[in-house]
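[step 3/7] fold_predict: job queued, chain A
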Amino acid sequence: MLQLLILCLLTWIPAFLCGVTTLKEVAVLEGRPLTIPCHYEPQYASYVKYWCHGSTKEFCTSVARTDNPSSANPAEDKVSIYDDPVQLVFTVTLNDLKEDDSGWYMCGVEIGGIWSADVVAFTNIKVIHGLSAVNSRLSGEEGSSITAECLYSERYRESVKKWCRSGDWSSCLLTGPEGSYEDTSVAISDDRTGAFTVTLKKLQLRDNGWYWCSAGQQQIPVNVLVTRRPTTTAESVTSPPKPSQYAAHLPPPKPVDRESWNSHGHILVSLLVCSALMVMVGLAILVRKMWKLHKQDPVLRQVKESKARLSGFPGHVCDLQDTAVIFHNNDSQDVHVY
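[step 4/7] structure written:
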């Protein structure tokens, strides 16, 4: 009896030590697809894998198995399963999920036999209706464009989609009957399959802030950050260069060689000759003037000197009524004034 108990415990050891691992919990919007990875140990590579719906193994309803060829098309089947023994993982793809599909599911490796338990792992899937954003924070440079992608559940497929500035409901832009809207700065497009996109064109700094994706009564926030466009090289060329920049582009001065000296030598010689002639003419005029002064009549010179001496006497200097000029002889040039 003891040996039988030990044997039973040994068959359960792999299930606890070398099991299967997967996500503990996952949420998905209604109508969207979902893929769950189930990882297993190398010794289970050749075993059959399965996916079932239930919270316990005894009451788990099988949904897909790797030994069933009809469960191998993830594009068409509601539930499909694919095993990759090289990566030691099998994946389960669920399509067009509804809210009723929420619940506990199980990844399992079928061991087989009475004394062997299957290796399993449980995950809780929540299918919700509402709205979500692929990226709740977007950023772009001034003048560029960015696109926000908003996902919605199945029940909002036909609802009007909106893009609004947070805190200002009057700014909302709505899709029309064709599921689209476009102007010079915003374009909205709804594919009617669970997602709509909002493209902000020619971003400006004033576009910074929080916005809402909206479908029906659901809203999801999206933050937009616009950064300044860096100055390009082409723009810097248009600005006037500094004086130092002008000087940097001036050609270097040419060295003075024999040719350039000879070409300028004639001009220098001409200037020197002209200057010498002008000096000589000036000197000649000055000598002539001095010579004239030296050759003046000595009698007149003596009269001028006498007038100068008389200026010291009383009476009017120019009163010459009682003045007499006496020449002592013809040979003498002395003049006496009385």
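[step 5/7] annotate
The longest helix spans residues 258-294.
The two ends are 186 Å apart (CA to CA).
exit 0
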